[in-house]
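Example 139.
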Amino acid sequence: MATERTLSIIKPDGVEKGIIGEVFNRFEKGGLRIAATKMIKMDQAKAEGFYAVHKERPFFNSLVKFMTRGPVVVSVLEGESAIQRNREIMGATNPAEAAAGTIRKDFASNIEENTVHGSDAPETAKFEISYFFKDSEIF
Ligand code: ADP
Ligand code: MG
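Predicted structure in complex with adenosine-5'-diphosphate:
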């Protein structure tokens, strides 16, 4: 076990629902420190680049449209096994399958509008963090 960093996004539905504070509270209570954070609005190219790994999936265009419809909050979370810990706090991709007490179970609308993103592995975390933050913006 080691201290890790992971990339979190509160997606447009989460910002619209007014739960930024609630989500941050769950991260901090769950042992994750917010090492960087900012609100941005992604354009199409930014969202397509972020989700490039999914570009052959049937939901890709819809996902990009959703992720660009309003502002998001991107953050770097740091802590023991932060990547896995954040995935536990978020819950399963499909809120219908997410465990009780997870962010997605409590707030997500459906499998697409599922409130939060979290990196899924060390390599993707490294790429995703650098996609939004310079080293000098992470504390
Ligand atoms: P996760 O965000 O849990 O890592 P994936 O990487 O598989 O999930 O998918 C990325 C995002 O694409 C999901 O968070 C969700 O917003 C969207 N998505 C995944 N599967 C579907 C689907 N079957 N239909 C619509 N959107 C989906
Ligand atoms: Mg993923």
